[in-house]
Every structure is written in C-alpha cells, then in structure tokens.
Amino acid sequence: MIINTVEQIKDLTRGAVFLGTGGGGDPYVGELLLLQEIRKGRHVRVIKASELADDAQVVSIAGIGAPSVLVEHLQSEDTCRSLVAKMEAQLGKKIDAIIPAEIGGLNSIIPMAVSAQLGLPVIDADGMGRAFPHLEMVTFSVYGSSAVPICIANEFGDSVIIEKTTTDRKAEDLARGICANLGAMIYSALYPMSGAETKAKAVHNTLSYCMEIGRGIREAREQLSNPIEGIMAILEQPDIDRHARILFEGKVIDINRETRDGWHWASVVMAPLDGGDDRFELDIQNEYLQGKLNGKTTCLVPDLIATLDLDTCEPLTAEALKYGQRLRVIGTAAAPIMRRPECLKVFGPAGFGMDDEFVPLEAL
C-alpha cells in the first residue's frame, strides 16, 4: 500500500483518533509533518510483516508524554530522523523498516512521516492495536523483546540514550522521568527487533484497519443519512473477531482532569439527552480505560472505547472533550492476541491498579 494523497492522510488520522481510545496524542501535529512530506513528492510505503527478511532490522518510533501539551511542542522534521541515526549507531547496523509502537493517535502518524523522510517502509502492524500510556504495554515486551536501547530527543535537540535496564517497566520509569524534565513531550526510537521477532510478536494488519475505519467514517458520512450504521458495519464483524457496541449516547455534564507525572488523568460523566437519570462514566489515564453505566462496567481495558461527535461521527481525543458536548460512545474488542492471559497481566485491568476482572466486551 502506498500513501501519497491528502485524502489518505485524513482517513489515516481519523482512524488513528478512533483507535487511540482517547489518547495516543492528537495526530494533528503528525498530520502536518506527513502532509509536508507528501507535498514534497515523497510517499509512504506500507508492507506486511511477512514481506520482511527474518534478519531485517526493525525499530519503533513513538512519542512519549502528556497529550494535553502536544500542540505546545511542534516537532522538528529532524527530530525522529536523528533518532533513527542514533539507533543505527547503537545497534551497529542499518534500520530496514519502521513499525509503530501503537496504532492510536499521534504514534500511528509519526512513523509515516519518518518513512517518507528516509524512504523506509512502514510495517502494517504495531504492538497493541490501540494506544496505551506505558511503553512496556506492548506485545513486543510481553513476548520477550526488549525496549532498550531507547534513543530519546525533544524538539529542541536535547537527547538521551537509555542503554540498558533490568525490565521494560524500569525503562518506562526512566523515560517518564526524562520526559518530565524535557517539557512533558519527547520522541523515541525503541524496541529494536529482527524481522522474525516482528512477525511473531506484533499485532498485525492494524494500519490497514486504521485506514479502513477512517475511510469508512468519511464515506458513511458522505453517503448515508445515518452514518453510524455504516461505521458499525465495519466494527462489528464477529466472523473475523471484530465486536462492537454502542455504549452510550448523551452529553457531557462533568469533567475533572489534570496533567500529572507526564500523563493526562481525567474522569468524564455523561447524561442522556432526554434528561433521564442514567449516568455514564469514563475513566482516563491518557486513554479511556473503563466505561460504566450507572456504576456497572460496560467496556474495560484492553478493549477499546471511542468517543464520536454525535452529529458528525468524528472521533475525539480525551483532551478535546468539553462540557456540554453531545457524544456517542462506542466499545470495540481488542485484537485476540491482546486478550491472552499473559497479555492481560501487563495491560489488562490489573496493569492499571484496577480490581475488576477482564470480561470481553461481547460478554458484558
């Protein structure tokens, strides 16, 4: 797949916000960077992991930080390009392909811009099929690949290399501390892997899914009087392990939020448009972690929650939510690999300090 048009980028960005489950960073900054590359006559080549040689060198490119400060840190076009060069110096070999660490939000778009800059292919896969707040919350880590070395830089050129850590969680703690001291938003090259590792450990076909969602929302909005029907037709396909539910429709009546420890923390309360007594709550740590209707869980991490403008069906990030907004909240099932017991230990409810036991969306 070649990405080289404005419409494709808009579709990709829209799908990235949906799969970002509220977080992952507003992709607007990455979209600007990618559009700039496309207008220079460059393009993005997306390949399947199966096309990689087993000894190919793959690396993830990702932003780390609080999404609420992202627009204050417009990325230099040299930032991530320099990170690839630093990673090559650390590994002593050339990078052959880039893989997004997460498919949601900014971190699905930034690897595309780097691909266009350097002429490297991007793999149609990632480490979670959504967005998560911790860098160790990826299938790469669960199945034994190490996050380090990690090359870090901000938009001013300040850079740090984390050469070795005892665990990927320790790498997260160190990166988060560096992030807090470099303006609460940094960029990184991390999780160097071989082609064989990538094939075995990634969540596959997620860039294609991202594009499908973004394109589907646009086309449904253009062609249907009720676009949600077209969107749900994409999201709800049980024969290929896709499940989706409309969790709530209503307006925001309360928001509490803060930026703390490099994360965006928030809780959102919604009420029905008809003034009924039902209350829907969203718990947020960068991403939507849990949806509850009248105190009962309706969708729980790692399954995905997305908020869409009720009229336009445009997906919204958590930091974009405002008092009085009219929203439709949709829950979708995580990729099957994400629901395995070994994965749930890392990014299931327990990974976020919750006492709830994970129950799949379609069983709630």
From TrEMBL:
Residue ranges of domain S-Me-THD N-terminal in the record: 8-164
InterPro entries in the cross-refs: S-Me-THD-like_C, S-Me-THD_C_sf, S-Me-THD_N, S-Me-THD_N_sf
Domain S-Me-THD-like C-terminal: 167-361
Pfam families with a match to the protein in the record: S-Me-THD_C, S-Me-THD_N
Name of the protein in its database record: DUF917 domain-containing protein
